[in-house]
Amino acid sequence: MLVTGASSGFGAETARQMADMGVNLLLGARREDRLEQVAAECIKRGATSANIRKLDVASTESVNAFADWAKATAGRVDVLVNNAGGAHGMEYVEDGQDEDWEAMFQANALGILRVTRAVLPLMKPHPGGIILNIGSVASRVAYEGGAAYCACKAAELSITKALRLELNGTGLRVGTIDPGMAETEFSLVRLKGDREKADAVYAGVEPLKAGDVAEAIVWAANRPAHVCIDEILMMCTAQATPYKLHRLKG
Question: Which of 10, 46, 133, 176 is the most exposed, having the fewest neighbouring CB atoms within 10 Å of its CB?
C-alpha cells in the first residue's frame, strides 16, 4: 500500500489501521521526521514493512523519484491512496493570494495526476488493485471563501471519474473518499497557524476524526477485486452541508 501525505491526519491513520492487517507500507510526505514516527508506530502494530521517503507531490521530480524508489523497494503497488492535500486561506476571490491558490491546486489536483501517472506502471500488471483519491464535500458544494479549494476538490472528483473510465478493463479500480468537517491539522494550516480560530471551527460540534475517515479508506481498499467503491461522501451528524452546521450552545 502506498500512501501520500502519510505524516499526519487521514494518511497517517490509514497507515496505522492498515498496519493492523500486516501489510507492506510505502509512506511519503514532506515531513520526514513525522514519517519516521508513523512508520515506527506501524511496525509496532504489525505492518510487515513500513518504508518511508520524502515526497512533495507539487514536484514532478520528487514524484518520479518516489515512484522509482517504490519500484526498487516493493516492485509493485496494489493500493494507492492519494491523500496529500490541504487548504490555504479563507479569503474571498477579490482578496485571494496567488501562492495560496497555487499551493492548493498543486497538492489537491495536479499532485494526484502526477502521483497516479508515476505509480500506474507499478499497478497495471497486477489486476485487482485500487486507487483511492481523498476528496471533500467541497467538491460538490461551493461556499464563500472557498472558491479555489472547492475548485481543486471538484477537479479531484473529475480526475477520479476520468480515471475510472480510462482504467476500465484493466482490472484496476478507482474511487474517491469525500469527508466533510474532520478534526485534523486541516483548519490550523488553512488559518495560517491561528490556533484560536482553528479551534473555533469545531466549537459545539463533534466532527469526524481521522480514524473515521481512515476506516472508510481501509474498508474500500479491502473490498473483493470485483467490487469498486466509486464514491463515499461522509460527514459528521451535525453537518448537512459545508454551510449548514448545528452547533451546541454552552
Answer: 46
